[in-house]
Amino acid sequence: MLAVRNLSAGYGSFQALFGVSLEVNAGESVAVIGPNGAGKSTLLRAISKLIELKDGEVTMEGRSLKGVPAHEVIAHGISQVPENRRLFARLTVEENLKMGAFLPAARAKYHQRLAFVYSLFPRLQERRAQLAGTLSGGEQQMCAIGRALMSGPKLLLLDEPSAGLAPVIVQSIFELVRRICHEGYTVLIVEQNIRQVLKVVDRAYLLETGRIKTSGAAAELLASDAIRRTYLGL
Amino acid sequence: MEVFDIFLLEAVVNGILLGGLLALLSLGLNLIFGVIDVVWICYAEVIMIGMYAVYALHVQLGWPLVAAMAAGVAMVAAFGALMHQFVIRPVLSAEPINQLLVTGGMLFFLQAAATLAFGIEFKNLGVKLPPIALGEMSFSLPRIIAFVVALAGVAATYLFLTRSYLGTAIRAISQDRQIMPLMGVDANRIFVVTSALGGALAGLGACLLVLQYDIHPAIGLSFGPITFLICVLGGLGNMLGGLVAAFIFAQFISVGGFFFHIEWGYVIAFAFFIVVMFWRPQGILGGK
Amino acid sequence: MSRVLPWAGLALLLALPLSGIGNYPLHLVIMCLLWSYVYTSWSIMGRLGLVSFGHGAFLGIGAYAVVMLWNHFGVSPWLGALAGIALSVLVALVIGFPCFRFKIVGHYFALVTLALSEVTRLIIVALRDQTGGSLGATPNTALAQGATGSLAAVQFSSKIVWFYAIVAFWLAALWVWQRVDRSMTRLALEAISQEEDAAASIGINVTKSKLFVTLVSAVMTSVGGVLYAQYQLYVNPETVSGIGISLQMVFGVIAGGMYVMLGPTVGAVFTLLLAEGLRLALGEHFKQFPALDLAIYGMLLVLFIIYMPKGILGAALEAWRRRKAGRAPG
Predict the structure, then answer these.
(1) Measured between CB atoms, which of B98, B100, B225 is closest to C118?
(2) Chains touching chain C at 3 or more Cβ pairs under 8 angstroms?
(3) Do B and A make contact, counting contact as 3+ CB pairs within 8 angstroms?
(4) Which ranges of chain A have pLDDT less than 50?
(5) ipTM higher than 0.85?
(6) Tens digits of per-residue pLDDT, C232-267?
(7) CATH of C22-140+149-327, one of 3.30.70, 2.40.10, 1.10.287, 1.10.3470
(8) Can you give the pLDDT at residue C330?
(9) Chain C contact for B214, CB < 8 A?
(10) A80 touching chain B per CB within 8 A
């Protein structure tokens, strides 16, 4: 479904990604793991066209995203849950979800989608009129994911969903991710919390200082010596 | 003693009426700043051309007053959108001072264009409405109309911002501009719409002002600075703060002008502003 | 060669009145120099990030102090100027200290200073019994029939005297600009404009540095007001105070180039030439198109900010520097 070929990107004169290639097939859940500063968030931003690519190409279902402006990427079926949630703090939960369905095509199905998101996250429905900024960390993450689902995406990008959350909450977040994968969504998730994320996804890529070092099935990577020694301290 | 009190009351009521109008004026400016993060230094001049537009349509071309006013609002709305697209958009990513200066340049340009088109004599709409008497107090009907319409404008804007999709998007973009593309929102489109809305509010303010005051290319200087100060006083970008500040300011102007000469009313209001700035620099309701 | 050029230019300038050019052209040059002086005074603050939209206050205070004290109390303009300076310093301190202390910057600072210039204008108008209000005021003449000048009253009928006087002030302003440019204050303020907290942490007294520059600028501008009043022999609240003249100062400097010593001068010349040029070109028809110069001025300013934010001189210097670099070997 998603193919990233030889992508290079960065900020100004600083290059963060060097010729990154990966792919995500329909129905799969794929993780990109790696240490801090490896360029993981940069990768997702490049796919969503929030930053320009210096080189390489991204194709979604065979159609290239070259020249597509950032606000049209969602129309190609790619929706992102940004790092740190980035909810509209002074809008209510429901208004945040409303913004997720801004696309005309999504607006037409607004009520259906809203009902679906509330069925996934009943807690959000309880708090629908509450200002998003007053939610707890875990609830905010639910809201952010719900917002991204409102557009009915084919591919869901998750940027470090566990970042900044207490360990107890982190568990529930990965439970959420697992459920979303089970619902049939295609997911590309970028994470620092390697152990937890590898238990949830099908495959993973290891990104280090802007380059893909290795990839494979999640279970294999979890068992591999290299990963265990370097990242899991075992 | 009795007479003294009644005229003081009249000044207070006039202050409230004025407050409504100033609230409308400050709303447009606050909207633009709160959403786009730009101050239209030429905001008062944009209102001025709205006033001239109504004058030209009604007095020079003979249009019925209401039609002229509706057209005036539409024209200023369009002007706002165009000004954003061609003047402000190029400097959006530059330093804030450049944005102030580019709209400042527009200030000169609009004043001069108005002078070229209409000359420097005072123009008047020629609409005479009888004053409303309430006991020994007398209030100008245009001022009352202005108050009512201004509040209606404020209410309509509030409803638009909270109930409509576009309004929600406008509120969203003022909170987090960078992630808007993720939801399929073209930030520039929203800014143009916001500028058009700000222009429409300015145009509405123009209609209300032109009922009460003569038009002159430099009148922007008489209510422009006041509008800025009200916005800053209430917290720049904070629409509710602007409303509160507008009524406070209007009281200072009206009551101060009642006790002293009208200019001193303004001076006192300005002095009040400077004092508040030092006590609470972010404005009474500010907190950005 | 390029080192000789400025001095040659200066020599030519100083020889100008002796060349027999008419009174009106000489008047234009004097006004150019006067506004160059004022704009340069503003830019000392402006280039360090303290963009004030309120210098009309200092200009107005200087102008009205001398005229009012002379007309009502017979106080010599020399003392009147001192009074004006003292008042300007007071105002600058009262506004500047809290602003810098509470870090009121950017939009807020611009709007606070804007309020300042408008309050000044309004007070001048409100005191109409003393100041003549919007009609303006004229200093009483000290020149008896036939006299050409009075140093004590700072009134001279000969433009030549004024020319040299104002050239002197203009050169002095450039010198101050240079000194501030080279001083620690400037380095401090540039550091501050980048990272105020970091600068403070290495001991740079932010408030003190900002206040110092503000005071210098305020005093100089105030003196500009004095010069204006004594030369033109007419002051008017709209011309010497208020938002209009304050904005013009900012624009003049931006148009000419804020970060270059002669930038404000170029801006002043540009502004005046534009007005005069249009007057010449349109001749008779100028009356039919009032404010055309302002319309073009405003339009040009908008275009400048968008396409040439470094100003005329700044952009020219940069182009020249780039060409020089292109021609250099290696």
Answers:
(1) B225
(2) B
(3) yes
(4) none
(5) yes
(6) 989 999 889 988 889 889 888 888 888 888 999 999
(7) 1.10.3470
(8) 44
(9) no
(10) yes
pLDDT in tens, C152-185: 777 777 788 888 889 999 999 999 998 888 876 6
Q: Please give the residue of chain B at the shortest CA–CA distance from A47.
A: B182
Rounded to a whole number of angstroms, the CA Rg of chain A reads 17
In this complex, which of C51, C115, C299 lies closest to B229 when CB atoms are compared?
C115
Nearest by CB to B182, which of A48, A90, A98?
Answer: A48
B97–C291 C-beta distance less than 8 A = no
Beta partners for residue A5, in sequence order: A57
Which residue among C99, C107, C290 sits closest to B39, beta carbon to beta carbon?
C107
The secondary structure of chain A, three-state, reads CEEEEEEEEEECCEEEEEEEEEEECCCCEEEEECCCCCCHHHHHHHHCCCCCEEEEEEEECCEECCCCCHHHHHHHCEEEECCCCCCCCCCEHHHHHHHHCCCHHHHHCHHHHHHHHHHHCHHHHHCCCCEHHHCCHHHHHHHHHHHHHCCCCCEEEEECCCCCCCHHHHHHHHHHHHHHHHCCCEEEEEECCHHHHHCCCCEEEEEECCEEEEEEEHHHHHHCHHHHHHCCCC
3-state secondary structure (DSSP) of residue B188: helix
Percent of chain C residues topping a pLDDT of 70? 85
Tell me which chain C residues have a C-beta less than 8 angstroms from the C-beta of B91. 305-306
Chain B residues within 8 A of C292 when measuring between CB atoms: 112, 116
In angstroms, the separation between the Cα of residue A20 and the nearest Cα of chain B is: 22
**Residue among A82, A89, A90 minimizing CB distance to B182:** A82
Do B171 and A103 count as a contact with CB atoms less than 8 A apart? no
- Give this prediction's pTM: 0.85
Cβ–Cβ under 8 Å, residues A109 and A97: no
Contact A43, A34 (CB under 8 A): no
pLDDT(C98) > 60? yes
Do the Cβ atoms of A140 and A85 come closer than 8 Å? Answer: yes
**Closest chain A CA to residue B173:** A88
Phi then psi for residue C77, to 5 deg, are: -55, -25
Q: Please report all neighbours of A, defined by 3+ CB atom pairs within 8 A.
A: B
**Residue whose structure tokens are 């009121």:** C104
**Cβ <8 Å between B185 and A147:** no
Using the Cβ of B83 and the Cβ atoms of chain C, whether some distance falls under 8 Å is answered with no
Per domain, the residue ranges of chain C are 22-140+149-327
Q: Mind listing the pLDDT tens digit of every residue in chain B (288 residues)?
A: 455 678 888 888 889 989 999 999 999 999 999 899 888 989 999 999 999 999 999 999 999 999 999 999 999 999 999 999 999 999 888 777 788 888 888 988 999 899 888 988 898 888 888 888 887 788 888 888 999 999 999 999 999 999 999 999 999 999 998 899 999 999 999 999 999 999 999 999 999 999 888 999 988 888 888 888 888 888 888 888 899 999 998 988 888 878 877 778 778 888 888 788 777 777 777 654
